[in-house]
């Protein structure tokens, strides 16, 4: 990490901890140079970076000051309280109706699940892919069958090691995206009619996969900042025959919540006690905004009960559909499921991404991506504060690229979705994130696209439509 990034991150940490508060003046460039032993250009670059993140502001002839945190005047939603009992799923048609309506590129994609592909090094990846295709060893079409390319799995094991987890390449199964990984895990662990636990709200793709496999779900309350409730989960495990848990612990979709490291450890210990496996959907873990990455649940798993699912779709290569499962004790069964469904993941893509991880500057790309997403979050928050009416609650994430908003109780976000779509704006209405179609006055907005005048106009449109329902 460069000196200016390190200095910026340390300053951001002091702001997050409340050591530096809104309105406090930062050290002048000269003072910072003397105090920290760094150059004027290092301080200036760091302050510009913090300014782009929305954390500080320059005042003419006065210096830099900590900015009142965008979104801070909007209260946070409370812990969810889903209706009790298990649910037989009938959500796919409902979700597809919503998703089909936001595929039009003319629509402002605030409801999209995808970031802007222009944030990613697609040209560079294309060169790695072309080289892999040109020099493809014919034997690789056999040797790279499940569990996948040896070098790619070695590179993934090295990244786990960097995050404090000792994961053998032998337990990693390469998949065609995280969605296939989730399906393979569910197929390996459950049979039709079985019960799994999901957080509430939860990502709709997990509900779709569970419905396809004939599973029932029990929804566990979650907090918009700290994620799934351990007390509620412990109670559910005592009273229900739960076969597996499907959770997002880092920057969950849709809430953006991150389970604190101590809670992760307690969660893994709780599941060890009941011998219930955890399928962790962790596709957003690399998109953290603070100075340190969140701890990896695999580092806390001593019994191989965590099946850690991730992909490159959100952090490096959208559209490549390449993911993996670090499946612990279930690796062989997940591998068998892969053989019996899609057989293999595209071999040139596996080779290309293995080479990119070795030589492509992945961590440098991630630093740029995180800074850009943090900047876009601040810009979207500014638009919400400007255009939305009073009475809004906001979950403020420190990673990922989603904002979860609670609107006043009388607002119907399914109706809001239809009205906004008619004016060229998409949103993700709350009911698609619930097996019981709860969260009727909630919505998810995407800040994975650079702010534009068009986006600001879309937020103004949403604000007018919300006011009309009040």
Automatic annotation (TrEMBL):
Matches recorded under InterPro entries: Aminotransferase_I/II_large, HTH_trans_reg/aminotransferase, PyrdxlP-dep_Trfase, PyrdxlP-dep_Trfase_major, PyrdxlP-dep_Trfase_small, Tscrpt_reg_HTH_GntR, WH-like_DNA-bd_sf, WH_DNA-bd_sf
Gene3D superfamilies membership: Aspartate Aminotransferase, domain 1, Type I PLP-dependent aspartate aminotransferase-like (Major domain), Winged helix-like DNA-binding domain superfamily/Winged helix DNA-binding domain
Matches recorded under CDD domains: AAT_like, WHTH_GntR
Record field: transmembrane: none
Pfam families assigned: Aminotran_1_2, GntR
GO molecular function: DNA binding; DNA-binding transcription factor activity; pyridoxal phosphate binding; transaminase activity
Record has DNA-binding as a keyword: yes
Key words, A-Z: Aminotransferase, DNA-binding, Pyridoxal phosphate, Transcription, Transcription regulation, Transferase
Superkingdom in the source lineage: Bacteria
Domain HTH gntR-type as annotated: residue spans: 1-69
UniProt family annotation: In the C-terminal section; belongs to the class-I pyridoxal-phosphate-dependent aminotransferase family.
Name this polypeptide is given: Transcriptional regulator, GntR family with aminotransferase domain
Species this chain originates from: Thauera aminoaromatica
Lineage start: Bacteria, Pseudomonadati, Pseudomonadota, Betaproteobacteria, Rhodocyclales
């Amino acid at each position: 990490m460069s000196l200016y990034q390190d200095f910026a991150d340390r300053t951001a940490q002091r702001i997050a901890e409340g050591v530096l508060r809104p309105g406090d003046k930062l050290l002048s460039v000269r003072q910072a140079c003397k105090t920290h032993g760094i150059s004027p250009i290092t301080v200036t670059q760091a302050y510009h970076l913090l300014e782009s993140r929305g954390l500080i502001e320059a005042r003419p002839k006065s210096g830099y000051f900590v900015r009142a945190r965008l979104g801070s005047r909007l209260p946070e939603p409370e812990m969810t309280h889903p209706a009790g009992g298990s649910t037989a799923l009938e959500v796919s048609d409902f979700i597809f109706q919503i998703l089909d309506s936001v595929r039009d590129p003319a629509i402002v994609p605030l409801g999209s699940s995808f970031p802007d592909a222009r944030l990613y090094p697609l040209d560079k990846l294309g060169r790695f892919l072309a080289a892999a295709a040109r020099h493809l060893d014919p034997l690789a079409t056999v040797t790279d069958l499940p569990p996948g390319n040896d070098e790619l799995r070695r590179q993934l094991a090295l990244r786990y090691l960097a995050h404090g987890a000792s994961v053998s390449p032998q337990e990693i199964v390469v998949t065609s995206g995280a969605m296939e990984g989730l399906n393979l895990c569910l197929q390996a662990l459950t049979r039709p009619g079985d019960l799994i636990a999901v957080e509430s709200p939860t990502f709709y793709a997990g509900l779709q996969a569970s419905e396809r496999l004939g599973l029932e779900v029990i929804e566990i309350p979650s907090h918009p900042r700290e994620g799934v409730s351990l007390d509620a989960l412990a109670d559910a495990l005592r009273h229900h025959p739960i076969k597996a848990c499907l959770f997002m612990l880092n920057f969950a979709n849709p809430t953006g919540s991150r389970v604190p490291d101590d809670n992760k450890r307690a969660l893994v210990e709780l599941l060890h006690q009941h011998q219930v496996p955890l399928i962790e959907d962790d596709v957003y873990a690399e998109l953290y905004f603070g100075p340190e990455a969140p701890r990896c649940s695999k580092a806390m798993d001593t019994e191989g009960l965590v099946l850690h699912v991730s992909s490159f779709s959100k952090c490096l290569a959208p559209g490549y559909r390449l993911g993996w499962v670090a499946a612990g004790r279930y690796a062989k069964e997940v591998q068998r499921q892969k053989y019996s469904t899609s057989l293999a993941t595209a071999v040139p893509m596996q080779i290309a991404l293995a080479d990119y991880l070795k030589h492509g500057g992945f961590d440098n790309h991630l630093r740029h991506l995180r800074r850009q997403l943090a900047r876009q979050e601040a810009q979207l928050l500014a638009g919400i504060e400007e255009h939305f009416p009073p009475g809004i609650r906001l979950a403020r994430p420190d990673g990922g690229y989603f904002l979860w908003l609670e609107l006043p109780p009388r607002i119907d976000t399914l109706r809001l979705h239809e009205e906004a779509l008619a004016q060229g704006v998409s949103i993700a209405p709350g009911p698609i994130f619930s097996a019981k179609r709860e969260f009727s006055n909630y919505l998810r907005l995407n800040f994975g696209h650079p702010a534009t005048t068009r986006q600001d106009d879309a937020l103004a449109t949403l604000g007018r439509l919300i006011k009309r329902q009040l």
